[in-house]
Amino acid sequence: MDEYPRGSLDHTLKEQAVLIRSDLSPLDSDQAHALLRYIQDRDASQLPCNGREENARKYRFRIRSAERSLLLPPRRARLPEGIEVPAPSPGTVLHSPYSPLSPISSLYPDGLIDTQWIRKHQDLVPSILLCFYNLASDPTLATLCDNQIKTDVNNIRALLSQSGYKTRLAVVLLSDHVSSSSSVEGVQERLEIIRRGCQLDSKALFLVPSSGSQGELERVAENMLTTLYSVSIEYYRDLGRHSRKKRGRGFVPQPTVPPTSGTSQTLSLAGWHVRYDFKSAIFAEYRLEMDVALRSYEQAYENLLGSEVMELIPSWSPRWNEARFLADIIAVRCLRCLLWNGQHSAAARRWQAHRERIADFVDSRGRGTNNYGWEAWEARWAVVMANLIEKADISELAPAMLRLYLPPEKSLMGERLQPWELLHHTGYWYRLAARHLQARKAYAHAIPEDDRRSPSTSPASHVAKAAFAYDTYMCPDPYEEYPLGRVGVDHGQMVVERLMRARAEFLRRRQTRLAAEVALECARELALAEDWHNIVELLRPIWTGLPFRTEGWISIAEELNWALRTAAAEVGDAELVLLTDWELLSRDFTKRPDWDYDITKSLEDVNVQAKPSVSIKDGQLNSFISASFLFKDEEGKAGQTARTQLSLKSNAHQESAPVVLNTVQLNFSGSLDTIVLRHQEGSQAAQLGRKVTLARMPLTRQANGDGTSQSETPGESSGAVALVGSANLTLFPDQTLVFNLDLPLREPGETRADSLTLTLGSETFDLQQSLTFQESTSANLWYISPSATKHIAHLSPLSIRVLPRPPKMEVRCSAWRDQYYTDEPIDLTLEIENGEDIEALAKLDVVLFGEKPPAFTVGIPGQEDQTSSSVRSEETRLSGAPMGTIPSSQSLTLHIRLPPIELSSRYDLTLKVTYFLPTNPGTPITQTAIFQLNVVNPFEANYDLTPRVHPDPWPSLFDSDGVTAPPTDDLPSPPSGISQSCLHVTLENASNHFLTFGLTMESSEEFAFAGPKQTTLQKQTKTMVCDEG
Q: In Å, how far are 2, 131, 809 from 226, measured between CA atoms?
């Protein structure tokens, strides 16, 4: 609202001012200064303009320190020079210098009201004049001091009465001694004498006791200001009552001197009603009675824009702009009242209603809305709303709330509001102002050259014609707005200022996209002003931070690149020039016919101090080079090669220069080596005119940096070792380079192609770009030839699963036994045979696992014997025993020796042979063999003796046939009676030891043995005896 300055139409009246002065010296005590500071700190002019509880005070004052003198404006105006004082008569009255009835007023004779009257009550005429005096405690000086105070106060009262103003007078007495119970009555008596002698009300005299406590001083000051606030409210209530009384008279007051020039027309009665309603609203607003003030403002507004006031004023008259200015002031104060009451949507609608109402007036009665003057007013009106919202300090619209607008209040919930009828945050209004300022600039630049010349150099007839052709309400004339041959209004700076304010509000509420859009608009204005440093500072964070590229906002990226490219070249930012030129090579952007698309010439017009080196990350910008990689097979085996294809495609403009890459580096995750393709002229080259160039790329294993061949230690891989190939890496526009690569697979596991790094170097700069491969199952195209492709059915074309290489190294033991015996040393002989086509360098791991396994010794031909070590209680191990080189189709015999084992046990003997082939020394191949070692005792009984039933029938004791003949001397008689014969018993000693068998049988009365009995049987080793019973 700075364009509506306070008192913009005032004029000097100091020669007639009334001086209110005190003859006593100012107070200079510490207590007086502390009280003054506290009162001044309670000034409410900077408080938020709202009626919230947290901002509510017992009083609200606008406080001004006047030392010992105060200059009041004259209550009655003097007559202008050359006019005789009229003869005394009842009709001759001198009026206020701010009234249209006074000839010296700028409103005479038919003006409404101007800011002089507002400034009079806002700045010049106080509601309360507070005078401070020292109350002497010395008894010899008390009477003199009291008389001086009474005299001075009465003089000031007389001067106030003489001025004609109703300003209230109050007195504050500062005691210079600490009160005691004995002196209280004396002080009270003195105060009563002073009050009566000065004719003061009881609410207008205050005593500040002398106390060292700051809290006590503040308490007294608070009570004093609270009391005076009611007095001030009553003062403005009286003024409002006086204005309403004058409005109700119903007739037009007569001027001091009747007008004799111009239209000789005085202000109409409707105009006086506007003036009185406006005054009543002002006084109600001072009392913070915002509802009463709003009704008076609205009444004055409708009367002003009615058919009896503004519609009767010709648009060529200065009174037209004065009335329009008053309409703006009333509308601003209506908005302030609505915001004070929390009617936010009503305020937005009131803002829009005034805009539409004034537009209708200007279109019908003024010079139309298609000119720079109207756009200047539109911009100013939007800024007014932003300033009012800032002054209101609406907590619901605070940045921390992240709200873009406020919901409608309850009284409007039932209505269907448009989006612009909701109260948005200030960023919205500042951006709206910037758009109108841009339109103002466009209209100003369309002013004809004849109207841009100064009136002193133009014909009088042309000046008169141009005076009625442009709307110059609160803006310069055409020759000042956009003068010819000199600088006029800086429209660009005004636009940038509004846009930067809007951008700050958008960023505080995390509206990053809108902030970026506003920043781009701001950069356009800065480019016209050639403010290159601010352009780079403003646009670079947007160019690097926002994801507008991935979201497809190509037009934004293009404009940003060209704006930054131009600014970077001017400020000498070589890195930014290279980055923007690299991106602008893409055919996604519009081609400029006069631009040389050659990256090697980017820095020709740039002042470079040192050779820049630029690194471009993936996704940092839209690169014109795209890359794809494809494993043809999903699986492979370690030691074999995988067929792959790398494609580089250029999407550069057709007429752009070819790009010659220095190197292309392919990076993998897993066991694959880094692949480096180096540019070499004369090798398989990219051919101009061919869209696709297909070449097979042989790779050699080299160390990065020196190009010399190097073999790695078997089983170890180094990050400095890469597979290197050479090719012509010249990439023409719209061309695709395809390389077939055979990659040796090393270790089993998952391997994936991660990224590609392109490097480009010249004499003036170095550039490197990283590209990350993206999975895409729909574009798995394998180039069979430059003109033919086929689809590879591969779910993960960027990865390959490497299986372990099948070993051809055999581990066997031809003399392995099922069991070994305790208390005997065990000597195992094993044979390792190389079944590979070439020799192999091998090493051996041996693990013996079981319950308390013993340490063992391994003997390898040509190597010293090595002994295992205990890893834990159930495992002993020998790791990495070198076996040397085993020729193809030959074997190596080794011995494993175990000491005697006391107890029977079972162990797992694991032999792991790891070997490497000279053709692929980095890939280990493993063969594992597991043997079960059973250690048992030398002998264990495994026979069983049980009685069996004889198959023959049982003999009878009474059968004579069964009685045998008596024995003779030569032939013993066979046994007679009951006999039983057993199923053969066979005993075998299968061991290597002499054994003795014990024979027992349980005793029983049911059977008996005949003949000699032998209870032991001795058997030689490996013999058998068969006994038949």
A: 33, 17, 105
Any idea which residue has 């027992």 for tokens? 1000
Q: How far apart are CA 872 and CA 254, in angstroms?
A: 121
- Say if CB 403 and CB 397 are below 8 A apart: yes
Q: How confident is the model at residue 963 (pLDDT cuts 50, 70, 90)?
A: low
Lowest mean pLDDT, pick from 42-46, 218-222, 268-272, 546-550: 546-550
- In angstroms, the CA 698 to CA 742 distance is 8
User: What gap in Å lies between CA 629 and CA 636, rounded to an integer?
Assistant: 17
* Sign of the Cα pseudo-torsion (216, 134, 38, 46, in order): positive
DSSP one-letter code for 122: I
Bridge partners, residue 1016, by sequence: 998
> What share of the chain in percent tops pLDDT 70?
85
Nearest partner of 496 among 536, 533, 530, 524, judged by Cα: 524
**pLDDT per position as a tens digit, 1010-1027:** 556 667 767 666 555 555
Pairing assessment for the beta strands 809-812 and 857-859 based on DSSP bridges? unpaired
What is d(CA 304, CA 300) in angstroms, rounded to the nearest whole number? 6
Q: By CB neighbour count within 10 A (0-12 exposed, 13-18 middle, 19+ buried), where does 274 fall?
A: buried
| Tens of pLDDT, residues 437-487 | 999 999 999 999 988 888 877 777 666 666 678 889 999 999 999 999 889
Q: Beta partners for 142?
A: none
The DSSP bridge pattern shows strands 788-791 and 700-703 to be unpaired
pTM, 2 dp: 0.76
| Rounded CA separation 583/591 (Å) | 12
Among the listed residues 729, 613, 584, the one whose alpha carbon sits nearest the alpha carbon of residue 665: 729
Residue 933 backbone class (left: φ over 0; alpha: ψ -120 to 50; beta: rest): beta
Nearest partner of 230 among 72, 62, 61, 55, judged by Cα: 61
Q: Which helix (H) or strand (E) holds 144?
A: helix 139-163
Q: Is 231 left (phi over 0), alpha (psi -120 to 50) or beta?
A: alpha
| Residue carrying structure tokens 């606030």 | 229
Question: In angstroms, rounded to a whole number, what is the distance separating the alpha carbons of residues 244 and 283?
Answer: 11
The answer to whether 929 touches 910, Cβ cutoff 8 Å, is: yes
User: Residue 892 pairs with which residues in a beta bridge?
Assistant: 832
Amino acid at residue number 512: T
Q: How many CB atoms lie within 10 A of CB 457?
A: 9
> What's the chain's length in residues?
1029
CA distances from 705 to 252, 347, 724, 743, 767 (A): 101, 72, 11, 20, 18
CA distance 372 to 436: 9
CB 845 within 8 A of CB 909: no
**Beta strands at 920-936 and 659-660: parallel, antiparallel or unpaired:** unpaired
* Rounded CA separation 425/396 (Å): 10
Residue bearing the bigger pLDDT, 982 or 844: 844
Is residue 949 packed enough to be buried (19+ CB in 10 Å), middle (13-18) or exposed (0-12)? exposed
Q: How many helices (H) and strands (E) does the chain have?
A: 19, 37
CA angle, corner 989, sides to 984 and 995, nearest 5? 115
Q: Please, are residues 616 and 782 in contact by the beta-carbon 8 Å criterion? A: no
CA distance 728 to 664: 11
Nearest 5°: the CA angle 335, 338, 343 is: 130
Give the other-Cβ count within 10 Å of 727's Cβ: 22
CA distance 348 to 397: 14
Distance CA 455, CA 463 (A): 6
Q: What amino acid is encoded at 624 in this protein?
A: F
What's the rounded Cα separation, in Å, for the pair 650 and 619? 16
Q: Are 754 and 773 in contact (CB under 8 A)?
A: yes
Is the confidence at residue 366, as pLDDT, over 90? no
